[in-house]
Write a structure and sequence with these properties.
The complex is a heterodimer. Chain A is mainly beta. Helix content of chain A is 0%, strand content 52%. Chain A has strands at 3-5, 10-14, 19-21, 24-26, 31-38, 44-50, 56-58, 64-68, 73-78, 87-95, 104-105, 109-114. In chain A, a hairpin with an 8-residue loop joins strand 10 and strand 11 (104-105). Chain A starts with a strand and ends with a strand. Chain B is mainly beta. The chains are: A mainly beta, B mainly beta. The interface between A and B is medium-sized, with 27 and 30 residues.
Chain lengths: 115, 118
């Protein structure tokens, strides 16, 4: 069975500082990896994905994520955090050999950016 | 505007009273899915549909039913709601070629429906 772990329930960072939201995964075969963001009282929005190729993936709002196969990780990063980045972030994984519908989400990490 | 629309956004009901949460998308997506979001558990898939008249169970289907009679609509039915179904529910859709594994991988989510069962 595939799974995603987001070890931090909350990450606190000051505006202007770099941020990292951690994600590790377990899946048989090669992974498809995703990050979604949820703002208060809203649905999830797609941020970025890794399918194949370059290990550093760039996405929306200045976010990027680094795929590390040996560490089975896909950490979300941003060089300079903004207060408006405060939200709930979900990592998700799918198995390209599995059914197209099977996307497993992590439990989410709340990012709090303060002035 | 491309969107996934869920109704109702908020609902308080009582145990055993049948209810339906509607979901409609205007993007001509083949794939639609329902998730529930609970604190500490993240999002868990309830049911999904790859196309009209094609539905299948997700990870937590017990107590729910779905139907896909039209491409744009994917209602979630709780025949006899119980308090453990109190949750935040999300509908999502994507193109079949853009399902989470193939294609763009981008799921479009509705705004959510907060359901309380007393």
């Amino acid at each position: 069975a595939q799974s995603v772990a987001q070890p931090e329930d909350q990450v606190n960072v000051a505006e202007g500082n770099p941020l990292t939201v951690k994600c590790t995964y377990s899946v048989s075969g090669n992974p498809y990896l995703f990050w979604y963001v949820q703002y208060p009282n809203r649905g999830l929005q797609f941020l970025l994905k890794y399918i194949t190729g370059d290990n550093l993936v760039k996405g929306s709002y200045g976010f990027e994520a680094e795929f590390n196969k040996s560490q089975t990780s896909f950490h979300l990063k941003k060089p300079s955090a903004l207060v408006s980045d405060s939200a709930l972030y979900f990592c998700a994984v799918s198995n390209r050999a599995g059914t197209a519908s099977k996307l497993t989400f992590g439990t989410g990490t709340r990012l709090q950016v303060t002035l | 505007e491309a969107q996934v629309t869920q109704n109702p956004r908020y609902l308080i009901t009582v145990t055993g009273k049948k209810l339906t949460v509607t979901c409609s998308q205007n993007m001509n997506h083949e794939y639609m899915s329902w998730y529930r979001q609970d604190p500490g558990l993240g999002l868990r898939q309830i049911y999904y549909s790859m196309n009209v008249e094609v539905t299948d169970k997700g990870d937590v289907p017990e107590g729910y039913k779905v139907s896909r009679k039209e491409k744009r609509n994917f209602p979630l039915i709780l025949e006899s709601p119980s308090p453990n179904q109190t949750s935040l529910y999300f509908c999502a859709s994507s193109h079949k070629t853009g399902t989470p594994v193939r294609g763009t991988g981008e799921l479009f989510f509705g705004e959510g429906s907060r359901l309380t069962v007393l």
